[in-house]
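User: Teach me something about this protein's shape.
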Amino acid sequence: MRAIVASPSTPRYLWTAAAGRVRKDAGWGPGGIFQLRDDVSAPSTPVGGGWVRLRPELSGVCGSDLGLAHAKISFVLSALYRSPRMIPGHEIVAVVADAGPESALSVGERVVVDPLLSCAQRGFDPRCAQCRADRPHLCERLDEPGRIGCLAPAIGFVEPLGGGWGEELVAHESQCRRVGDIPSHRAVLAEPAAIGLHAALRWQRSGDRVVVIGPGTIGLLVTAALRMLHPDLSITVVSPGAFGDAQARSVGADRTIPPGAGVVTTLADQDGGRVLRPRMTRVPLLERGVDAVFDCVGSTDTIDLATHILRPRGTLVLIGAAGRQTADWSLVWHRELHVNGAAFYAPEPDLGRHTFDQVVEWLSDPSYPVDGLVTHVYDLDDWTQALATASAGPAAQAVKVTLRPNSSVPLVGRSVAL
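Assistant: First, the predicted structure itself:
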C-alpha cells in the first residue's frame, strides 16, 4: 500500500535534534525522515478479537507531526515513543473496510479514532492502576507491546498498525466512534477537539475571565470548548495577527490581544487592575489578574506571560507537546498558582462520558462553530506541500491542514480547496 513513512531513529535525524540545528524542511527535504512509499506492507491485525481495518477519508497534520518533522522532539518522551519506523496520522476520519463477524461495526460505517493504545487494546489483564482508575491516557504500560506487538503509545506513532497518512490502518473497535453523516471537514477535527475539551476541563471554574494563548488549531478548539461549556465566560485570545483574530472570534472569543508585554496593560485598561513593573524584568505584573490561562504554545515567553497575568491561586493549563523551556516560575510559589498539563483525552468525571463521545455530539451540532478550521486538503502525492503549508501556519492562511490518502473514498459534506 501507499503511505508516508517516518524513521525518527536515523542517526542523522537524532544528531540534528540533539544539536538543535534544524532546517525548515528537516523532516521532508533531502535526507529528511519522511518518505512517501508505494511498497509499505498492509497493517497487521493483532491477536484477539475486535480489530477492524479502516480506510481514511481525511487525516490531519498535527503539531506533534510538525515537531517530528522539524526535529523538535522531547528526549524525555523517547522513553515511550520508541518505534524505529512509523506511519504518522492520528487525527482520523475513516470508513470501515473490514470487520470480523463479532464486531459491533459494519463495513462502510464512518468512524473517528481515539488513537491511544492502553491496557485494553494491548490485552493486559489485570490492567495497570491508571487504566483501572479510568485514566487510560496515563497508562503505565506504554513501554510494553502486549498483543499489539509493538512499542508506541498511539496509532500514528507505529508502523505495524498503520496511521492516517496511509491508505489503510488497523484499530480496535473500542477506539472507534461512529460519526454517521457528519461532514468530513468537521469529523476530522474529533481528536484535536477532544484535546481542547479535556484541556478546558482541567480548569475547575472559579471566576469569569480566562485567556487563551495561541490561535492555532488547539487554541481555537480550546476556545470553542470553553464557549460550549461556559456560555457566559469572558474569553480573551492572544493572537499575533488579523487571520488569527478572525478565527478566534469565529469560535467564540470575546476579544483578541496582540502578544507581548502589552497584554498586561491591555487587560488592566479593559478590565481594571493595577500594573506592577519589576525593575529587572520586561513583563509587568497584573494585580487582579485573570482566573485561568490556557497556554497552547508552551514557549518561554508564553509561560512567563501566563504567570504574570494570573490572579493569586489562578490556574495555568499547559496544552500540547512542548519540550524543555526555561521560564521564571517564581510566581507559582508567590501567588500559589495551580499548574496543570493536558495532552490527551479520557473518560471525564465532570461530563459522565468520554471526551470523544462529547465532541462527536458537538461535531454533529451546527452551533459548534468549527466549520472554518480545516483550511487545506492535499492528496498524498502533495504531502511535502502539506507539511510546508502547515508549518507556515497563519502566513499561509492555514489552520488545520489535512491529507487525503484515498481519492476513491468520497468526502462527505462541503469540500475544501487544495
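Now, about its shape. DSSP finds 13 helices and 19 strands in the chain. The radius of gyration is 21 Å. If you'd like, I can walk through any region in more detail.
User: That's plenty for now, thanks!
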